[in-house]
């Protein structure tokens, strides 16, 4: 395999009334909750898919099927750590990751630094290698109607020395 690999991940979760959401391992108090089999951290799910995709290892559903009760309510940081162990096991390490979170609500700007640090701490990498951005869809589509949250994630993996 080449010295670098690029992976892309995309995930969406519906939202409903609740008492807060978790994105990038950070709890955000709001009037919503994400609907999912695990803890619903759509950002970490997209990041898992990007890592797995970079090495052609399938997707998050292959590794953690929602039909398996052991993953009910699972902590997505644990899932991310498992995916990163697979990356390391293939002889690669994270060069950088870039995530874009599309959510009409809640406003995410106050949590961006904590999100970057959470991912970095979970993976044991520098926060300067993690980028997290947030956007709205200007009230267009399912995100704009506050029916869901979508996340795009891109990773660059480098051959470990």
UniProtKB/TrEMBL annotation:
The keyword Lyase applies. Belongs to the IspF family. Residues 4-157 form the 2-C-methyl-D-erythritol 2,4-cyclodiphosphate synthase domain. Its cofactor is a divalent metal cation. Keywords: Isoprene biosynthesis, Lyase, Metal-binding. Involved in the biosynthesis of isopentenyl diphosphate (IPP) and dimethylallyl diphosphate (DMAPP), two major building blocks of isoprenoid compounds. Catalyzes the conversion of 4-diphosphocytidyl-2-C-methyl-D-erythritol 2-phosphate (CDP-ME2P) to 2-C-methyl-D-erythritol 2,4-cyclodiphosphate (ME-CPP) with a corresponding release of cytidine 5-monophosphate (CMP). It catalyses: 4-CDP-2-C-methyl-D-erythritol 2-phosphate = 2-C-methyl-D-erythritol 2,4-cyclic diphosphate + CMP. This is 2-C-methyl-D-erythritol 2,4-cyclodiphosphate synthase. The gene is ispF. It comes from Zhongshania aquimaris. Its EC number is 4.6.1.12. Transmembrane segments: none annotated. 4-CDP-2-C-methyl-D-erythritol 2-phosphate binds at residues 11-13, 37-38, 59-61, 64-68, 135-138, 142, 145. It comes from the Bacteria. Pathway: Isoprenoid biosynthesis; isopentenyl diphosphate biosynthesis via DXP pathway; isopentenyl diphosphate from 1-deoxy-D-xylulose 5-phosphate: step 4/6. Homotrimer. A divalent metal cation binds at residues 11, 13, 45. InterPro entries: MECDP_synthase, MECDP_synthase_CS. Binds 1 divalent metal cation per subunit. GO terms for molecular function: 2-C-methyl-D-erythritol 2,4-cyclodiphosphate synthase activity. The record marks 37, 136 as: Transition state stabilizer.
